Amino acid sequence: ALGRASAYESIVCHRRVSVCVLHHTTVISAQTSCALQSVANQPSVQTAPSCTPSSESADVTSMHGTALLALLAAVPQSCALSLARPRATVKRTVLRGGGAVDTAPVKRITAFVDRNFFVCGMVASVAVAGLSPGPGQACEKFVGKYAVATIFVLSGLGLKLSELKKAATNTKLNGLTQGANLIAFPALMLPVISVLRKTSLDGRLLDGLLVTSCLPTTVNMCVALTQASDGDVAAALTNAVIGNLLGVVVTPALVFALMQKSVQLPPASIVAKSLGAKVALPVFVGQLLRRSQWIRSMLEKRKTLAKRAQELALLSVVWCAFSAAFGKGLGVSGSDLVALLVGLPLLHVMILRLCLKIGRTQFDNREATAFAFCASHKTLAFGLPLIR
Predict the structure, then answer these.
(1) What does pTM read for this prediction?
(2) What sign does the dihedral 125-126-127-130 (CA atoms) show?
(3) Are 317 and 143 in contact (CB under 8 A)?
């Protein structure tokens, strides 16, 4: 009985000292004396001597405590009290038959797609259009009418009227954007096309590239990409309208100067009417909806959902455009197609990065994003009639 009591006394003393060192070293002696007293007050067995510690046993206990304190002081605090840490567990889904499926890779893939939703959606849209262009061709008119309207309604819903006024009066941003898109872009492409004419590429393909460089910026793509990149949507909207109005006059003049060919575009009144129905009216509807406090509060709570809806609308436009291209045929040889698939993306990335670097030296990040997308994009609506 005395042996067990002595062992218990040693264990309690060491545990109390260890815990006290980690939390507050000033209570060590008190905790040690309490442990000794609790053991001493235990009933003795028959004629066993008293368990009250003598001076000799107190000295031994003090020596044990001092040695333990020195040991704990020498060990890093993170290792002073060794606690068993739970191992990282892998979540598994248990099947009916008793087997288990590791769900970690699925969750990683889902998280990657969620972070890069638009890029993954672009790849999927082009792949689906290439495999089966029929459904996209059938939906082209519907998507072109309502999906584009959805993009601009959501853009107007998320914009303040003061932002639109500020973008419309930002002459520096608007002037540099249109100058880069309608003047610097054709000037950069002219020597490149001249060099490529010495290769085996089809001359009609190179004429198409030169005409493309003279086109104004896109109407919907630059706005949607600017919003997806947290750029200045008001500036993108303003430059989309200005660029397409200027394109009625500037683009035919550029084509005639570079190719010595006269082209005819729709009158400015028809272009203005089309822009009003496609851009101005949906933005105006979005501004009216924004006047509702309930709609504004819902938009603040569902920003991610609104952004995802705009991305889906834009992806539907991409899907229909590529479906129409694959369905009607590209009209180029295999070698020319490979050159296009390799050269055009590289050229676009280079121009986009150049515009982004220039924009960051002149504007803030949001305005630089709008400048980069508006200055580097070219509209398909103007391009097809000119090329044909």
Answers:
(1) 0.61
(2) positive
(3) yes
